[in-house]
Amino acid sequence: MTRRQKPGELGRWRQSPSLSVAGFVGVALLSWVAVGSCTEPAQAPPALPSGGQPRPIDAIRAVIEALQAYPVVAIGESHNLKEAGAFYESLVAADAFSASVDDIVVEFGNSLFQSTIDRYVSGKSVPRSELKRVWQDTTQVGAWDAPMYEAFFTAVRRANAATTFCPRSTTRS
Q1: Total domain count, the chain
Q2: Hey, which bits of the chain come out as E strands?
Q3: Which one, out of 42, 84, 128, 158, has a CA that is 20 to 30 A from the CA of 116?
Q4: What is the mean pLDDT of residues 65-74?
Q5: 167 within domain boundaries
């Protein structure tokens, strides 16, 4: 994930507040990375409690706060974990996430099909037989067949449909 850039910050210009699946990476244990560009200066992450036991905080809020403090936030996963998939869908659906993130980079896909996933998450019609090649035709045969990976892309598509959408002039792979 990358945070949204503030006006005047170097980087590519965006016409749209929508999310894109910007590219695919193959980093062991790295599931996805959100790339944002914030509208306010980066702030330090919240202080950890002193002494005693750590206190759990809301995971979505923690990711949003991390995006306010850092330009790139990486989320690791135990592959095929149903609970992780549910979290990813909830995170992508959160309005604060869409307001904070421009790009999402994932490892569970093949960059040869970048244009296919770009069309899909932007709301265009893509036959399922073509779409599933994104996560099935990889060097990790069978690794990404769990329903959570397809559901993630569908969640990004839904999040984009819920925002004011302008077609992107460029995509990255």
Answers
A1: 1
A2: 3-4, 20-24, 30-37, 72-76, 101-106
A3: 84
A4: 89
A5: no
